[in-house]
Structure formats: C-alpha cells, structure tokens
C-alpha cells in the first residue's frame, strides 16, 4: 500500500482544530491527520518531525503569523502544500498568501464541500508530483544501478536529498523479485500486480521491524523486478520476506544494506548472484542433466557444431515441458556451464567461435531473469551458433601454425601433441584427426620425419658425436634413435655418415 498523505492542522482556536481533525477523516478517509498545533512556532517543530504533505494554516495567529510560516515553508520545504484558512476576504491578504506558495485558501467558517474540494485538488497535485518524482527515481536507479552510467549517480543523490532520504543514518537495499508460477504468462506484467507484490513484501519487512521511508520498483523483465528500499534496520528480514522461493511463487534475493548510493551497482551484481544461486541450488543435478552436459562437452571438444546444436535443441525441448522454475534452473545451469571454469578449461576452437554469442547471452542475463524471456534468449543463442560455419581456410592456418610449432620445438624431448593443442586452442583428439586429414600423416609421424631430417643434416654437415645428434633432435635414447633411423633409411646413423663422407670424397676426385 502507498503511504497515506498526511495533513497538519495549525490554528490558534481549539474548536477549529478539533472540528477539522474530526471532519477530514470522515470526508477524506484516504488522508491521515498527522497532528494539530495552536501556533506557528510549535507547528514548525512538528513539521520537522512529522513531515506532512499538507498544512492547513490559519493566516492570523498570535505571535508568528501564518503568512510568515507559509513563507518559511515555501523556502525550506517547497514540496509541502499549504491551504490557508482566513477570516479576511481581502485581496491583499490573498495576494500575500499566493506569493508565499499557498495552493488554496478557504474563508472561515470552513464549509465541508469547499474543504473537501480543496484537499482533493491538493491531493491530485501531490499525486502528480509523486508520480513524476517516482518516474525520475526509477530512471535514475535504472541508469546508475543497472546500466552503471556515472552521471546518473548525482541525479539519484539529488532526488533522494530533495525528500530528505540522503544520509541521516539511512541505508539502501536492493531486492530482486522473480515471479515463477506456472501462470507467469498472465502474471507479472500488470503494473498493479507488480505493485501489489512489492507492497506486500514491504509490509512484511515493516512488520519485522524495518523502518522503510521510501521504496521504488525498477522493472527488469516481464516477471522480474528490482525493489529499491530506503530506511533503517533493513537487515531485519523474516524468512517469509527474505531470500528464497515463497509459497506464492515469488523468488526473492536481497543485497546487504549499504550506507551510500554509490555502492548500489556492486550490490546489484551481488543480488543477481544470490538470485542465480537460489535458482541453481536446491535440487541436485539429475542424471539426464549430467548426461546432457557430458554430451555437450564431448561435442565442444571435438569441435562438432552440429552435435553441439543438437544437444542444445533437445535440452530446450525438455525445458519447454517443465514448470517455469524447473525450466529456469535447467537453462541457468547451462549458461553457468558456458560462463564457468569447466568450459574455459576446454581447448575448443568451436567454443572460441561461439564466444561472441556467449558474451551477448550472459550480458543480457539481467533482463532474462524471467520464465518467459530466458527461453527466448536461449533460442536466439542456439540459432546464432547454428549459423557458425567451420572454415577450411581457418583449418589450414591452424595446421600451418602446428607445423611451425613442431619445427621450433622438435628438439624438446618432452614435446607432446597436448602442448601443441593447447597453443592453438584445440582439443588434442580433434587436432590429431584434423592433422591427419589435412596432411595425410599422423602427428607423431610428422614430428619423427622432422627430427630425422634434421639428424641427417647434422650427420653430414657437422662433427657432432652420435649421442649429441640424438639429443639435438629430441631423443634421450641413442639406441631408440638408431632404431628409428635405420627403419626409415635402411642404414644406421653411423653408416649414413660414412656413406655421405665417401660420396663427398668421390665428388672431390
């Protein structure tokens, strides 16, 4: 519920104060009489404490006049509306009152219909101003807290300060609320429904002891809102108003209270993490889900685009048939896989190709906390990666890079296929198959050929001992090196050197 507008009555006549205090609730039950004061001095003190929306003010009182108080209010509390009560039907008094920021004036004795009409007018003015202020506040919150636009922080500070909600020991808190009932399609989008959910949550917090001075709703998605709270003792949340899934299908996560609006973007990230944790926690992953992620991992490691898309599409078919909350959990777990360390450890060229689509999906997470929107975003993601094409020229570049690495590293006895695969961001099994397909040779056969070719050069062009040649081309065992050499060239390394030397001598003669 919106707080009732409050009126303070200021008149030196006790009978008038009592009469108005009784009349206003009967005529306008939506208004609360905050208090009644006999003079301007006590009224000013009461205004500091009660902060009324409207002051019914007698123009002529002993001591400080109503006009003086009206002028003070106009300068120091310009949002406080004033209806002047006067027994003087004189132009100069009315003119002075209007110059002092008075909205309406009533002649004594006050008539019921005139009083009601004047307060209704003022109420409409207050409602319009509050609506405009709320819109500005929601926009500032959206720009600063959600989008991180620096210039919006000062706007937010100014709006809060104008209502006395900046500093003064007040705290600020964010609460994300997602409606996850099966009838989400009809719920959540209606403004009154959203307002009622937020208002109910605020009422529960108040019952728990929180002193809430201001709250606003920032819509994030069709069924997901960000609730902004200003007040004291905001950390006192009962389980029903705290985090988790309520019986009404409302999933709630809240940030820690902070003392300054500048900290709100960080709190927004944290409250998103908490909401995501609320979705992912609870039920352990089913055998079917684990199998799906396992098949997805294999497809990505093998750079199998068709297989990856098939796994994702079949997953979507399963999630469409689930309750909204279960569907959210399944999709979020998949997104968490792509964004998490498990995927980052994969040396997959396909995963690297998918990165722009993955980044876009995760960047839209704040707007996708919704059982309707999230599946749509996931569908877009799948269709986008389905359009990716394995590029043969790219494969040739990769193989060229692999050959270059081999020529540079062949002398390292610990040189392995896994090291090369890591350097070119591919799965080792996939690289092995791609290398064979592209060159007609197995990876190890190509490495052996490079090593033995270099050994032949050293045998003919240098005086290095056999053990030194062996070590220089990446072998730790001279016996194994000699066996490989003989198998490849039908002579031992020593015979090859001798034959090569003899051939040189013959050429000289």
Automatic annotation (TrEMBL):
Gene Ontology CC terms: cytoplasm
One Pfam family named in its UniProt record: HTH_18
Keyword Cytoplasm attached: yes
Keyword field: Cytoplasm, DNA-binding, Phosphoprotein, Transcription, Transcription regulation, Two-component regulatory system
Listed transmembrane segments: none
Protein's cellular compartments: Cytoplasm
Domain Response regulatory, residue spans: 6-123
Example GO molecular function: sequence-specific DNA binding
GO biological process, one term: phosphorelay signal transduction system
Protein name in the entry: DNA-binding response regulator
Provenance organism: Paenibacillus herberti
